[in-house]
Amino acid sequence: MTSTPSLVTRTRVVIVGAGPAGLTVANLLRAAGVDCVLLEAESREFIEQRPRAGFIEEWVVHALSRHGLADRMLERAERQGEFEFRFEGERHTVRTGELSGRRHYVYPQPLLVTDLVASYADQAGGEVRFGVREVELHDIDGDRPAVSYTDPATGARHRIECDFIAGCDGARGVSRAAIPDGRTVLTRHDHGVAWLALLAEAPPSADGVVFGIHERGFGAHMARSPEVTRYYLEVDPGEDAGNWPHARVWDELRTRLAADGAPPLTEGPLIEKVVLDLHDYVVEPMSYGRVYLAGESAHLVAPIAAKGMNLAIHDALLLGEALIAHYQGDDSGLEGYGEAALRRIWQYLEFSQWLSRVLHGASSGDRFRAGTASARLRRLLGSESAARAFAGLYHGEDADL
Q: What tens digit of pLDDT does each residue of 59-95 get?
């Protein structure tokens, strides 16, 4: 039982969670003169170093740039407009940039978070409170919701009364948990496989993304920086990362990414080994009372197609603009927020599921799944119209879906 708050303050919007979604909302509100407070359970140092996603779609970069939030990304990020399938000992390049007219920006999430924190807190003087504990949401279905928390330095309870709460604190956060049972529906899909996510202190061994399709399991190579490379290995769900020592990892990567003419992999120390059981979920509706969910509070997309961070920022752009419009007398954005966000969410989930079936068919042990996956892949590689449609979804569409 938490103690009575010793300090009560007021703002217009409380944002819970300083990931890409929460920070984007905060920056938009601050720039528009809408008072807000950002609460984050972790330290600033932690969120600026936490390894996460690295591919940002071009439409996201343009959208952030319009708000002055992409200067460093535009200066530093590598652009990628093609990737490679490897299967049956052969290499097949898909030039998605030529087909779609778009590129991916390779810019790891910690760098984006660092930029967004600096923009909001250091440059614009926005209020952010790191390391908060025992965060609780109150009266979320009334006219005067509030968020309380414990100050980690003093142990005092603080209460912030507000008009709205932006719940951007992820799957295990308090925002979604505060919504009463039965008020939302969570739909979940399990891909039936897991990936061993690896970060290697080693230069990339290819120019961009490599998808290795192999009967032993899927493998992937993704350049992150000149010194660090992301790899994935398909493993059994529930696998222990400790069962994968250095030698086994590199032996399996060499096997699954092998192809005629491919350069050898450059080995290096493995600085991260995490098993990800691949699943998706969607929460509908994405709001209740005065709480609006964004990012992984509302949906999770397995990292199969690198869509998660892009969807989180899409949510945040919609929500931030809707909140600003509310204070200008227009509530249509808030009323239509969930519907607008879900159009893109479901489209990206469908694409991720399609790609999952292609990548994991050969290792499924099911001749039908393997055969249909091979047929899809060969259609993609052999048909310009199929390749063009794939490239548009791979890089993300500009218009609402």
A: 999 999 999 999 999 999 989 999 999 999 999 999 9
Using alpha carbons, select from 62, 63, 11 the residue that is nearest to residue 33: 11
Residue 372 per-residue DSSP state:
H
CB 253 within 8 A of CB 208: no
DSSP 101-139: S--EEE--HHHHHHHHHIIIIIIS--EEEES-EEEEEE-
Q: What is the pLDDT of residues 297-340, one digit of tens each?
A: 999 999 999 999 999 999 999 999 999 999 999 999 999 999 99
- Would you give the end-to-end CA distance of the chain in angstroms? 45
Q: How far is CA 106 from the centre of its chain?
A: 13
Contact 224, 106 (CB under 8 A): yes
Return d(Cα 326, Cα 184) in angstroms, integer: 24
Structure token digits, residue 377: 């892949």
Could you give the CA distance from residue 358 to residue 356 in angstroms, rounded to a whole number?
A: 5
> Of 160, 167, 151, 209, nearest to 21 (Cα)?
167
Task: For residues 40 and 18, give the distance between their C-alpha atoms in angstroms, rounded to a whole number.
Answer: 6
Name the pTM for this structure.
0.93
Residues 6+ away with beta carbon under 8 Å from 356: 191, 193, 278, 302, 304
Output the CA angle 194-199-202, nearest 5 degrees: 140
